[in-house]
User: Which sequence fits this backbone?
């Protein structure tokens, strides 16, 4: 459909996500740099449904796959650098743990929390990823966004992007190609200790080494989704090949044989039970991409 060396048809997406479920992208592009990304977009027929995939750590891809163009930012978008002013600039595809470790090694503080989040910079901006008392909006100066329809680039602040709790006003047509983070000067040893402590905490409090996509639901005001799920007695419960983690009740862990539909059904089942017993409507934090039963064509 798109004649370009960085574009392929029918590419399985499951291996590109942490849940390892779901179908294929009808068209898949992995542009190596901004010029290639622009070229591919200029060859893309108007009205093509476009999805940007980061490191796939917050998504469930439909078993029917994605009927459109899936873009994964390639090589040059993984770069991370520290400027003379101490600001850290990273490509939209850069891994967050890499950003955290590089900043720490250069004595730049404030980005340590990224070490526990296995996503990309682009995914973090879109989701306003956060933890350990901080989030992306707090540390971000600007993000450079390419509009895939107009191919115009803008540089936006967290305020422009209305970044709130695990949310922003970015849509599927926006591609985060780069972001710059403000840091403070700190002692390298202290920063590396902080990174070790966050990593230790994660190992102790999250189901490491399993198939999951982090917290499934957003925390409602003044409460924790995991605590609510525990209160209604679902911690450790199974639903076919998917289980509520016995370590952290807001993580749903998938078995090797689980499908995207199994995860979707369990999420809806938990929401229904929580709604019935507490009146609280838990809002999913993870994104279901593509078609799901019950018409959750979400992104
Ligand atoms: C073990 C584990 C722990 C986690 N812990 C945390 C945590 O502590 N805090 C937290 O906030 N999250 C956490 N997460 C969730 C996830 O890592 C974050 O939401 C992360 O920011 C998602 O980034 P990603 O690159 O994987 O995005 P993806 O999952 O690939 O995509 C998520 C959304 O972002 C969009 N997107 C991705 N890249 C771009 C881009 N370049 N431009 C525009 N849009 C883009 C996608 O289209 C999609 O809508 C965790 C996940 C796991 C598996």
Assistant:
């Amino acid at each position: 459909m798109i004649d370009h060396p960085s574009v392929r048809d029918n590419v399985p997406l499951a291996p590109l996500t942490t849940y390892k479920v779901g179908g294929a992208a009808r068209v898949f592009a992995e542009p190596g740099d901004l010029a290639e990304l622009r070229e591919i977009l200029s060859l893309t027929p108007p009205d093509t449904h476009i999805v940007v995939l980061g490191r796939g750590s917050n998504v469930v891809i439909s078993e029917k796959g994605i009927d459109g163009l899936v873009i994964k930012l390639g090589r040059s978008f993984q770069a991370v650098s520290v400027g003379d002013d101490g600001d850290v600039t990273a490509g939209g595809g850069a891994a967050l743990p890499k950003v955290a470790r590089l900043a720490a090694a250069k004595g730049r503080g404030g980005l340590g929390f990224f070490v526990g989040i296995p996503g990309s910079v682009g995914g973090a901006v879109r989701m306003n990823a956060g933890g350990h008392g901080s989030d992306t909006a707090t540390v971000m100066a600007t993000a450079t966004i390419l509009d895939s329809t107009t191919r115009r680039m803008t540089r936006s602040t967290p305020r422009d992007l209305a970044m709130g709790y695990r949310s922003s006003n970015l849509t599927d047509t926006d591609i985060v190609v780069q972001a710059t983070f403000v840091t403070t000067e700190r002692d390298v040893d202290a920063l590396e200790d902080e990174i070790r402590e966050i990593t230790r905490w994660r190992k102790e409090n999250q189901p490491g080494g399993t198939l999951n996509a982090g917290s499934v639901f957003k925390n409602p005001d003044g409460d924790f989704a995991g605590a609510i799920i525990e209160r209604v007695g679902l911690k450790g419960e199974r639903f076919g090949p998917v289980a509520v983690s016995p370590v952290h009740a807001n993580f749903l862990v998938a078995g090797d044989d689980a499908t995207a539909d199994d995860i979707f059904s369990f999420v809806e089942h938990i929401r229904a039970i929580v709604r019935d017993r507490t009146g609280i409507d838990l809002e999913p934090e993870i994104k279901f991409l593509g078609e799901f039963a019950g018409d959750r064509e979400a992104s």
Q: What stands out?
A: The radius of gyration is 19 Å. The chain has a mean pLDDT of 96. The longest strand covers residues 140-147. The helical segments are 34-43, 96-105, 121-127, 136-139, 188-205, 225-231, 260-278.
